C-alpha cells in the first residue's frame, strides 16, 4: 500500500522505473501492480477529476493510475476500462491548464494516452493532433491506428467480448480488428 501523502510520486516512480516493453504487454506485472496500487485505485477512483489537478505531476500520476494500471490489474476483464473516463477527464483538464508543457515527451505520451483509448471519434481526432505535436513517430502510428478503428466502427471491436457487446455485422465481416 502507498502512503497517502506521496501517492503521486510512488505511481510515477514505479511506472517510469519499468522498461518500456513492460508497459504494454507484460502480464507478469499484473499481480504486482494490483498488490501495490489496487487499494490506491479503489480509494482515488470516486474522487472528481479536479482532485488530481494540483500539478502536472499529480495529473500524470492520476492518468497512470486510472488508465494504465487498470489494464494490468484487470487484464481480460471489463474493469480494465472502468476508469477510462476519469483518466480522460483529468487529461483534458491538465492539457487545458497547460500542464503537458511541464512534462517530458515520454510523460506527455502517457498523459495523452486516454484520448487514444477513448471510443469517441472527437477524442481520437485530438489524440492524433496531440501525438503529431509530440513528434514521436511510433506513438503517432498507434494514435492513427486507434483513430482509424474508431472512425470505421465507432468503437473497438476487440473489446466486445470483454464488455459483453454483440459484434456488429460490419465488425464480423472485417474479422478481428486489433491495431496493435
TrEMBL record:
Pfam families tied to this protein: DUF924
SUPFAM superfamilies documented for this protein: TPR-like
InterPro entries: DUF924, TPR-like_helical_dom_sf
Name of the protein in question: DUF924 domain-containing protein
Amino acid at each position: 500500500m502507498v502512503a497517502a501523502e506521496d501517492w503521486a510520486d510512488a505511481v510515477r516512480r514505479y511506472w517510469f522505473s519499468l522498461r518500456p516493453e513492460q508497459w504494454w504487454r507484460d502480464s507478469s506485472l499484473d499481480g504486482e501492480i494490483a498488490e501495490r496500487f489496487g487499494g490506491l485505485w479503489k480509494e482515488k477512483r470516486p474522487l472528481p477529476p479536479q482532485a488530481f489537478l494540483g500539478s502536472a505531476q499529480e495529473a500524470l500520476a492520476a492518468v497512470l493510475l486510472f488508465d494504465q494500471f487498470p489494464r494490468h490489474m484487470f487484464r481480460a476483464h471489463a474493469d480494465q476500462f472502468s476508469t477510462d473516463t476519469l483518466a480522460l477527464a483529468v487529461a483534458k483538464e491538465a492539457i487545458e491548464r497547460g500542464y503537458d508543457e511541464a512534462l517530458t515527451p515520454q510523460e506527455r505520451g502517457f498523459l495523452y494516452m486516454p484520448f487514444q483509448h477513448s471510443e469517441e471519434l472527437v477524442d481520437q481526432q485530438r489524440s492524433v493532433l496531440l501525438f503529431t505535436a509530440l513528434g514521436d513517430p511510433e506513438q503517432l502510428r498507434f494514435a492513427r491506428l486507434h483513430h482509424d478503428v474508431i472512425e470505421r466502427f465507432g468503437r473497438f471491436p476487440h473489446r466486445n467480448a470483454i464488455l459483453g457487446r454483440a459484434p456488429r455485422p460490419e465488425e464480423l465481416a472485417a474479422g478481428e480488428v486489433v491495431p496493435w
